[in-house]
Amino acid sequence: MGKTIAEKILGEHAxxxxxxxxxxxxxxxxxxxxxxxxxxxxxxxQAMGVEKLFDPSKCAVxxxxxxxxxxxxxxxxxxxxxxxxxxTGAILSEVGNGISHTVASxxxxxxxxxxxxxxxxxxxxxxxxxxxxxxxxxxxxxAFAFGQTWMxxxxxxxxxxxxxxxxxxxxxxxxxxxxxxxxxxxxxxxALEFVGGAIEGLSMAGRQTLANMAVECGxxxxxxxxxxxxxxxLQAAGRGEKFRVIRADPDAAYERIETFDVNSLRPMxxxxxxxxxxxxIEDVKDEVKVDQVFIGTSTCGRLEDFQIAARIxxxxxxxxxxxxxxxxxxxxxxxxxxxxxxFATIMETGGVVTGPGCGACVGVHEGVLGDGEVCISTQNxxxxxxxxxxxxxxxxxxxxxxxxxxxxGRLTDPxxxx
Amino acid sequence: xxxxxxxxxxxxxISTDHIAPGRLFHLRSNLPELAxxxxxxxxxxxxxxxxxxxxVVGGRNFGQGSSREHAPIVIKLCGVGAVLAKxxxxxxxxxxxxxxxxxxxxxxxxxADGDELEVDLATGVVxxxxxxxxxxxxxxxxxxxxxxxxxxxxxxxxxxxxxxLD
Lengths: 418, 166
Description:
Shape of chain A: globular
Distance between the termini of chain A: 47 Å
Helix content of chain B: 25-40%
Number of domains of chain B: 1
Radius of gyration of chain A: 20 Å
Largest interface: A-B, 59 and 43 residues
Strand order of the largest sheet of chain B: 4-3-2-1-5-6-7
Order of helices and strands of chain B: EHHHEHEHEEEEHH
CATH topology of the largest domain in chain A: Aconitase, domain 3
Largest sheet of chain A: 5 strands, parallel
CATH superfamily of the largest domain in chain A: Aconitase, domain 3
Radius of gyration of chain B: 15 Å
CATH architecture of chain B: Alpha-Beta Barrel
CATH architecture of the largest domain in chain A: 2-Layer Sandwich
CATH class of chain B: Alpha Beta
Structural class of chain B: alpha/beta
Oligomer: heterodimer
Number of helices of chain A: 14
CATH topology of chain B: Aconitase, domain 4
Distance between the termini of chain B: 25 Å
Number of strands of chain B: 7
Number of domains of chain A: 2
Mean pLDDT of chain B: 96
Low-confidence stretches of chain A: none
Structural class of chain A: alpha/beta
């Protein structure tokens, strides 16, 4: 019987063949924590009596969630993590460098790697053809210490995405459609393989949007098979030699095969307070009045996402009473968007561009919502309380729909503008 | 080990934002304080009224969302005996094993808020003393049973010096 991509990568890292359903201890190529999960990882390492990391060049600490720190408690957490990195030699990604997953894609993760991180959206780098998955702080403490973790080898859902993206329709819309169909727990413990013409035509930014939200249907990982686009991305990042092809065997066993016709896909939205509460925007008949628009995050915080938004915003003004926050995913995204004028457009329109990081998405700072307020966001989660206020309402859309909504002041189908 | 307590009933899709919300991000290094807000956005009275041995009873996809291990830890710090649900999000479930919070899967529809429950952790049988029923739950995979038997993942590493699951 042939192998899925997940079975191939985990088999290589276990040192023996594996099949879905088996358990295996696997080697880890890159592992990381962020400032919300890292302090507990460090305390668990201390509790285990571990002082040396298996390979400090493969262990990273990202200060991205509360970045720069808005409170003294978090400043002390940052201090604690900086001390840890100094002591152990772990990579420290300072305030201003950006979101762990975005930076990991830009600088660290390669096709065929096993990546584990203490953040649920670690699955983002599945876009490069890695087996990347999120875990808790103690599991990552073990990975930091031994360069190993245990895995249940997942069954795979093959998601065949055919056709072409129409005007105003993006990877985010496809992923919302997939989650709406599979449901929030429909792929729990499973691997997703994204294949088909629509995926082959997607940029690395779009692929990261898909892989990032794999966890929102419960999946352990969402993998895009590496191809020419992956090779070019790695080359531009100075890691061209790390490119390799990993494909599923033609006779690989899939638990489910689902087909998505991208030709007929429309701009989508996830309504509060669940990510699988998905509709086409044009089917939402009640007017949704907007207070805040947020563009960024590990889902849609790459240059291309801001360029899409800026194209719609250019020459227009924000609707009265609407504020727009743009948070670049990384230092590189910020610099590139400064160089090509993207962030100038957002500022000229009346928006604000914050420093790189997770920003408003996690409810810590830089865009906490008021009671009863509505936020149209490009992020991945709209759970009650997600943006720091349990009495607020979050709608998840593409960067295009977010920009269009900022201009009209209501939830808007971006095809009106493109 | 047998645990006895009352059921605290919650709906489907209880997320880690309900359990340990992002607005209290700054309390993650002060877990006893964070525990005072456990599940606050789902049932504000929970943390102040829960008694040791009580059960959190959820629906589908309990613990969905973030990887924050602080979520099962604060439930445990509240004295909760076990979490019962129709299903758990993957990372939350794995975190429960690592921190030693029992998480059992069963149809929770027949359990009403306030029902007296008795859970036998050795056999996985959930008795509803109010309704007079007994329901078996599926056993954990051996890997997880090893970790639980050692007292959680930290104790497992201290005992074996590495991951030893075979």
